[in-house]
Amino acid sequence: MTESAQAAFPSDSEARRQSRRITRRSFLTGAVLASAGLAGWEWLRRASPEDGIPWPLRRVLQFNERLAAALFGASRLAPTYTPSRAAARPRVNGAIGLDTPIDPGTWRLRVEDAAGRNTSLSLDSITKLPRTEMVTELKCIEGWAEIIHWGGVPLRDFAAHYRFGTRSGDALDPQRHPTDLWTHIYLATPDHDYYVGLDIASALHPQTLLCWEMNGRPLPANHGAPLRLVIPVKYGIKNIKRIGIIRFQDERPSDYWAERGYDWYAGL
Ligand SMILES: Nc1nc2c(c(=O)[nH]1)N[C@H]1C(S)=C(S)[C@@H](COP(=O)(O)O)O[C@H]1N2
Ligand SMILES: [Mo]
Per the domain annotation, does 233 fall within a domain? Predict the structure, then answer.
């Protein structure tokens, strides 16, 4: 297993919990189909196929795939592009939590965990961390996508640097201590109007970035200045703009669009 693969390893208890959930789900699917009998089979057969597989089965497969990816470190990388492919004027979508003007000079990022550790960071201190560039596609659940050139710091490096992400307060080392990781993170705008929940494997994915640059310039306000999340393994809805708080916890966090009927994982 590669290092990044290991990083995606969930805690033992989380893995057990997930496999229990899957077993229960597969059982339920089977039971429902058995009792529905021929009518059920007909319904399943006619359900519009994605990739030639009826969608109810597709859902189950996708779920199993996700667990496999987390457990066996497939931790797949999203495709990357040359910077020349980046959209000249990237589209803006969604302004929840961006109502009031914000001063990047006085803005602070609050970072905390369920054990009560917390800190407050200025943009200056965050942008001093080793910078990464990445050219990836932002995919909106509404059906459009755009290639964008991002600059920022991987969330895993950020967490390691500030010693967040672990229960012990030790520097992040998922390879040696997977059970020391909190299982989820919650991110919200400063006014808490927009908020996103992520499983820790996705949060610590090598392509999950805290960004302050877009196409070689400071991030514009409507794209989430001073700091936004870019997570190309998830749909646009998880790419929260204008982060005010990041919280590490075990409880599955609430999520703005999940509360409105979208898949909580919103994975690609
Ligand atoms: N704070 C905040 N972040 C947000 C949204 C929002 O409404 N508010 N919309 C999301 C959605 S649905 C998408 S597709 C992307 C779009 O990012 P962009 O405006 O930089 O293209 O931002 C995401 N992040
Ligand atoms: Mo979106």
Answer: yes
